Amino acid sequence: MNFCHIGLGLKRAQYDIYPSEKLIMKIERIRYFLRKYRYIFYLTPCVLFLLSLSIFPLIYSFSLSLRQWNIANPYLGKRFVGIENYITVFQDFRFWNSLKNSLILVFLAVTIEFILGFMMALCLSKKIAGQSIIRTLFLIPLMLVPVVVAMVWKMLYHPSYGVINYLLSEVSFARINWLADKSVALYSVIITDIWEWTPLMFLILLSGILSLPEDPFEAAEIDGASKTQLFLYITLPLLKSIIAVALLIRVIDAFKLFDIIWVLTQGGPGISTETLSYYTYLKGFKHFDMGYAAALSFVLLGIVILMTTLFLKLFPGEER
């Protein structure tokens, strides 16, 4: 009996002590969770807001790409056609023409912007007189609205009163109809894009160069390395990740170029400067074929994702 009483007493004591200890442990676990994952509570409202602005339109536009809907004829309704819009896209001559123009623009513009931006960054990474003023002046095109940039260049390209043709005539060159000649119109757009976005390349690459450690350069100079060797074997390898970021940002952005083309040429003359983004705009807001325009936008998204994936594969895992 004594043993039974002792056992009952211990069991009662356990029931008296453990609930409070369990409660304290639960509270401590909650506090630990809140301390460790508090960023979740800060980020959740922002993430939900961004998802509501992106996920719903993405789902809706994909659903729209599977339908035939012309808002100029609303009585026809939204007829489900499956992948017919996508099949039509790849059979469309203007799609292939706009894709060709987009690829030419992206390749030439981004390549020249990178070369010019890198050269400017290398020159201005050294201590020279008026360095801060020159850097600020180089960034002015980046601060302007693209539509304003396009309007300024449209005046410069004017066949009769433009400054560019005036300078050409002064050195006995024939005047060029920059925006009305099929052979040069696309390159005129590319020149405008280069003028506006080279400062972005310059800014990113200059930041990368200024952040490089000095020890490898000092050690290489002691070993007798030339400036060319320093650039090829130290500067470039250390800047791989910065270069990847700069090129990736510009490739994605150049594929979406619309405002400069809309102001300068509106896709003309003919369809010589019509890019994918501008052709999508025409189908959606000029021809009112919203289903086909949605399919075009998803094809453009797929091309950008594919190019981005292939581009990132050029860099090792650490740079990616």
Q: Tell me, rounded to a whole number, the average pLDDT.
A: 85
| Cross-sheet strand order for the largest sheet | 1-2
Q: How much helix, percentage-wise, in residues? A: over 70%
CATH superfamily of the domain at 93-312: MetI-like
Principal-axis shape: flat
**Termini distance?**
74 Å
Task: Compute the number of strand runs.
Answer: 2
Number of helices, where a helix is a run of at least 4 consecutive DSSP H or I residues: 15
Description:
The chain has helices spanning 2-36, 38-65, 84-90, 93-124, 131-138, 140-143, 146-156, 163-170, 185-210, 215-222, 227-238, 240-255, 259-264, 276-285, 290-312, and strands spanning 67-68, 79-80. With 320 residues, it is mainly α. The chain has a two-stranded antiparallel ribbon with strand order 1-2. Helix 4 (93-124) packs parallel to helix 9 and helix 4 (93-124) packs across helix 14 (276-285). The longest helix is centred in the N-terminal third of the chain and has 35 residues, at 2-36. It starts with a helix and ends in an 8-residue tail after the last helix. Residues 1-17 have low confidence and may be disordered.
Helices and strands in order:
Blueprint: H1 2-36, H2 38-65, E1 67-68, E2 79-80, H3 84-90, H4 93-124, H5 131-138, H6 140-143, H7 146-156, H8 163-170, H9 185-210, H10 215-222, H11 227-238, H12 240-255, H13 259-264, H14 276-285, H15 290-312
Antiparallel strand pairs: 1-2
Helix pairs in contact: 2-15, 3-15, 4-9, 4-12, 4-14, 9-12, 12-15, 14-15
